[in-house]
Every structure is written in C-alpha cells, then in structure tokens.
Amino acid sequence: MADPDGSAGRLFSSCVFTFFPSKELSQSLISELSQSVVKYGGSVIQPKRDDSLVLNAVTHIISNTIDFPEYNEASAMMIPVVKSDWIAASLAKNKQVQIRPYSPDPRMIFSDVVLSCADIPSRDKDAIIGATMAMGGVDSENITRLVTHICALSMDHPKCQTVIEKKLKCKIVLPHWFDDCFKLGKRIDEGPYLLPDPEILRARPEDDIAVPTSQHLQGATSACPDYLPPPGNGSVAGRPKLNVFRGRKIMLCGDLSISDRLKGIVQGLILENGGDMTDEVDECDWFICQYREGSQYVHASHERKVVGNLSWLYHLIVHDEWTSPMRRLLHYPTPKNGIPGFKDLRITVSNYGGEARIYLENLINASGATYTKTMKADNTHLITARDNSEKCEAARDWNIDMINHLWIEESYAKCELLSISTSKYTHFPPRTNLGEVIGQTFLDETKLKELYFPGGPKQPAPAAAAAAKRKRKILDVTQENLSSDDPAEEVAISRQARKEFDVMKDNDADYAEKTTEDFGVSAAKRRAGQLTTPARARHIRVGKENETPSTVSSTGRSAKSSALRRLSDLKSDIQLYEKEKKRIPKDGGPWGGKRAADLIDREHLNRRSVSSPASAREDDDGAAIMSKRPAKKARPAVKEVEMRVILTGFKRWVNDKHKEDADRKKLRGLGVAVVTDGQPCDYLVAPQMVRTVKFLRNLSKGAVVLSSTWIEKCLDEGEVPPPEDYLLVDKENEKKFGLKLQTSVNRAAKNGGKLLWNIPIYCTASIKNGTDSYKAIAEANGAIFLVYAARSGTTIKPTNPEEDEVGPEPVYLLSTASPEEKKLWKRFEDMARQGNMEPRVVASDWLLDVVMKQELSFDEKYLVTNFFG
C-alpha cells in the first residue's frame, strides 16, 4: 500500500493496547497483532504475572470475549473493548474504524453483520437499518466483499444478481428474518429465510424441525451439580495444570451440599494449581455458596467479591478459562425460597431436547415453581420452543398460558414474575426451534442488589478500606455505563427505547409486522389462509407502555380513564371466570373444552378393549397428556451417574427413536449416562476402530475404548458388566492402520490432549469433507489450526535463521491434489521459509494417522506429491 506522507505509521500513534488471551484469541495471533500495532505507531502493555490486565494506562482492550475479570472495571473507566478484527479492519482502511460493530458483547446480536438492502420499501428499509445498527451492525449502500447480508424480497434485484455473478459469500435473506430477530431480541439462524427458496414460504408450520444443540449451556444446566466433572483427558493423574486459580483466594461457604471427600478434592485442585483457600470473607477473591442468603453472602456481595456457586466453580475447573458467574443464570447462587410469584405455578415444557430440557427443568425449580413432566389441566404455563405439538394443542383447549423460554429466563434474571403479555415471550418464528437461542440471558446485578443485599457494606478493615472503596466505586459506575437489559431490548417492539437507540419511532419508521403480501412476495408461494408471521400490527411507543393516546376531549378523557381503571380492577376476575368457563363442561365433568370431551368419549370406547380405564396420549416429546389424574406414586430414586459414555457407530438405534429413548433411560437407571460429543466422558463405545471425528476426538482425551457389545450386555441383562472385560479388540483395523489400539489409549492418557501442542496446522479452505472436521481433531490435540485460502495473508512471523538455535520447525498444510489447491502450495512454502519453518504440504491422512496412533511422527509418504502421485 502506497503511503507517501507516512500517515500509515501513525495509525495507532495515540493508542496503548492490552490483549486478553482466550480460546478465540491465541497467543500466536496476539504476537502477530502486537507487531502490527507497534509497526503502525501504537504500543502494547503486557498483562501482569497473574494474567490480570493493567487498565490505568491503556486506551484499548483487544478481546474476543467479555468474559474476563476486569471487564466491569474497564466499562466503568470507559475503555473500549473490541475484537481482534478491529485492528485488521483499521489496517485495511488505513484509519481507525468504528468500535461499535466490533464489540465482543454477545448481546450486540448483529455485531458482525454488514447489511445492504435491496428491493425493500423505503420506510421498512430505514427501520431495518436503524435497528440493525443499534444492535452492532453496519449498513453498506454498495455491494462489496465485506457485505454479509442482503435484505431482499426476491432474487431479481441487481444487488442479488451481483452476488450470484461474482460468487460472493453473502447471505440473501427475507426481511422476515430481521423482523423475527427484532421481536425476540436474539439472533436466530438465517437458514429458513434464505432466498431463492426460503423454507418459511414452502414448508407447513406443523412440519418437523430438528432440535438444535444448546451451545450456551455447557456446564450450566444445573445450579447444584452432584459430581465433579472428570478432567478433559479422562485421567486425574494426567490433568494439565490450571491457570484460572493462579493468585486467587477462594472461600467455600458452609451451605454447599457436598461431602467432605468431594470438598477435599476441590480444595486440593485449587491449592495444586496456584490458588489459595481462606475462611474469611474479607480475604477471599471468590466466594462460593449455594443460596442468596446469609451474612457471609451479603458481606461478600457488598465487598464486590466474585460470588458464584459450585456449578460455576466446576465450569472453571473443566474449561480452565474465566467466565463471569453473572453470564449464565445457574452459575450464580439460587434464591432459597424461589422468585416471588412463582410458588403456585405448575410449568411443563415442550419441543426442547437434550441439555436445554434439563436446564429448563432446573431453572423452573430454582425459580420456585413446580416442574411437571406430563401435561394436565391444572398446569398454569407451557414453555415451548415452537407453537406446534400435542401439548400446544392441549394448552389452547385448556386455556393454559403458552410462552417461550425467554419468559422464564428473564423473570429469573430480573428476580420477578414478568408479564406474559410482552410480545417477545409469545412469538414463535414459523420454522425455528427457539432452543437455538437458549441460555443467552445475563443476570441483572442491579435487581440482585435491591432484593438480596441492599444497603451499603459493613465497615472494612483499615488496611482494606481504600481498596474496597475504589472497587465499590468502579462497580457502581459500571452500572451507569452498562445497560441492565440486552441492547436488543432497547429497540424491541412495543417497548420504550432509550434516547440514543430510539430508531423506530411512530412518526419516523413505523415498521409494522408484515404478512408475506406486505413485503411484496407472491401470495401463490404460501398456502391459503396461512401467514408466514402473525398479522398483528406493531408500533414503537414513545410514552408509557399502557398510556392511552390523547385523542379525546378532557371530559371524555376523564370518563374513559375512570372506566379503564374500573375495568382494570376487574381484569383478574374476568380472566379467572373465562378460564373456569372453558374448563367446566355443561355436564359437570372434571375437564373443560371440546378436547376434554373428546378424551372422555374415547376413554369410554376404549374400556371395551383395554383393561385400564385411563387413557393417555403422547406428545412429540414423549411426555403423556393425561385425560385423567393418576394416583400419586412415590418417585423412585434415580441412581447416581457412575459412568459417562459416548457412542459412535452404534447400530441398535438406527431409525428407531423410541427404542433409543427407552434404552437411554434404562442405561441411566443402571448409572450409565450416554452423553453427547464434546462432553466429558469415561468410555468411548464403538463396534470397531473408525477414523471419525467423534472417535478421534474422544480417543485424544484418553477415553477408554470399549466394544459396543458392552452396551448390548447392559441393555439385555439389566446390569453393568465390568468394562475392563469388554475392551475393544479389532485386529483387522489395527493391521490396516499399523497400530495397537490399547497402546494408543495409553499414550493418549499420557499426552493429556497435548500431542500436537502449539504445532501450527493449516488446511486449505476447499479441502474434501470441509475444514471443520479437521479443526475439531487438531484442536482436541492442542494444535494451532488455521484455514489457508487464496486471499490469506502472511500469518507466520518472519525470523532470522541465525537467531534460531534449534533450527526450522515443521509447519503443515493439509491439502489434496486438486488444481485449485495446488496453486496455494508455493505461496505457503514461501511463507513458511520466510518464517524459518520447514513447510510440509501433506494429505489429511497424516493428521488422522498421527491422532489415531497418538504419536507425533512424519513419513514422506504423506506429502501430497507422493500420496496422490
């Protein structure tokens, strides 16, 4: 880039940076960015020895997450926290770009969106752009390679044609996607809204939708875990050193429901990894307790100690990475008596699966309500991820309130029973399972203080008075600088927006909710009588939520206000009357509505052919909707989990979901939990050796590999045989891969997931089977994985060979011999040699074989020129 006046060298001349390393921002990338910053006039301050950040002299914090201890203090000091991409973008434009679009705050749901609108009506276009920018996005009038989304009604617009002709990696979405995101205050998947063939226009609302994984719930599904999760490599002896406790003093409160043995293990882990234990609140940095009560909890909260529960502590142990206990609802101590207003509620769940269902059950119980697995007429609420299921039909017939999970999450976060009349709680996008956005709600610290530790702190000891006063001041200022609500809520429909975010006023851009015809899409593309989104007009109110517009005379206004007050007083009685009227049939039976009558008729007919007088129907979750109340039975005690297993290649359940569910319950009753890939596990169960992602990832963690015959025995005989008698033996594949499986397992336990520690492995972007699989395998073994494409810059630091006493280290590029990939080889080799590294362009089989053997080795047969020759 030409720079005749030398301005590039002054780009960061007034900036002082500090970096927070994390999984998303590796040390190698920090080193490269630091060099770029210094080259262009900036300076970098390194963290302290205990990894804490120095804030008093910096102007920018570069972090790809807000999960670091100094985040609140940085916000109070008005120090911008930006992603590492901000530096690259500033360098590309030769000027410091806007900070807002590069915020790592997950509540800025459009922070990585560069939007360009096509054939959208001008008023709707202004509303979409305004709200997108308020939530971190950027508007672009022209189509460039930086544009990530085009909002359009069809593919006919020139902007859409440009994307097709130039093969740009840009998503063309209907405005309905933005509409649904604005309503929920969460960013949902664009898939169902993508042109030219959007799913929301061709699929029926009742068609099945896959239940998504819950990526935000890992280690946060329960506030009271009953076990210490195993280490990442499956072996306590091989557990790597933890950095998260270094220099920290931890206090375990007496209200924790853990045994002395488990408490001793936890304390040992903290002490062995640089932490310290204390029994004094004033001395601790972190205070761990179970409930939001007690003098010690109040004192710790007043002194601004980090207060979390056992689930949060376990999460730190497993992941060895800081996260705020305010980030996830069940990482903070629970209210012992629940949230006011929840005590008499009976809540059931539909359309959520896996960890999301467990999380909701625990959250409902923590709030003080009663969770019910089955749907009965005495239920008060149904929390559902879609508005289509047997339970949903029953809720409509029985007049039971139906909402999504945002209601229970935000009620718990704000420590109060929120009204279900808010539109975001009753909104269900037509082709989205809302389980994909579960677990993203933060706790409201202001509400916690008002309810659980009001007032000021006790007088601190003289030596700690100054530090405590400064810390309290910082955290108090933070509450003024930070919004307690999500940024998305500030532009949400039917709420008063803050002044600085009020981009959708009635007189400015009345972005009413559209039917398909409103957006100009042909009505022939949807089924008669069905709307892609509910046709309720929505407006942004600039006054109070329930304020009546001033459109009548003073006399009329007075009479109307009086009538509204009287009607408001009777509202609860009217609702109760309507509810009971639907429940009580004319014949005086116990259930109400047409659905209940049909169930009773069916029960009488079935008595002739079945012996049981009661009938039950299963909804899509497998939970029964009872037509008659069964007698209460003592709940059997659930056996404690003794083994966690991951299955791969298991054929018993193929195309038989009901059998799988039944078998999983049976195994759980035996103390064997079948967990999903990515969770800690003790055993990997497979019929034979396979080079799949699941097999290689869990082998790398040191999991013991068992034959699937072991699971079959457990299910067929109803008892758990000794796992050591069923170690997987596969002579044929051992010969094929040239290894001994048991040797690989033993090596994996010793390697502790660090077989490829800090070894750079590149992968061509167009490699067969995609880059994600290889990334998962490489990173499970500690490698630094990067994608290498035609436009990739130099990512290896140039060094002087004379300064390197060890000699060039190898750097690998996974590739095939396709003409497109061959073009990258020379550039990669030149880059590696300039960095004094030995380039090795290899077939992907090298990585698979190395990980399968759990032994780092190299043979020239893996070079692409030999492998594909």
UniProtKB/TrEMBL annotation:
Residues 544-564, 606-632 are annotated as: Disordered. GO terms for cellular component: Cul8-RING ubiquitin ligase complex; nucleus. GO terms for biological process: DNA double-strand break attachment to nuclear envelope; double-strand break repair. Residues 7-104, 105-195, 342-425, 643-728, 812-864 form the BRCT domain. CDD domains: BRCT_BRC1_like_rpt2, BRCT_BRC1_like_rpt3, BRCT_BRC1_like_rpt4, BRCT_BRC1_like_rpt5, BRCT_BRC1_like_rpt6. It comes from the Eukaryota. InterPro entries: BRCT_dom, BRCT_dom_sf, CellCycle_DNARepair_Reg. PROSITE patterns: BRCT. Pfam families: BRCT (PF00533), PTCB-BRCT (PF12738), RTT107_BRCT_5 (PF16770). This is BRCT domain-containing protein. The lineage of its organism: Eukaryota, Fungi, Dikarya, Ascomycota, Pezizomycotina.
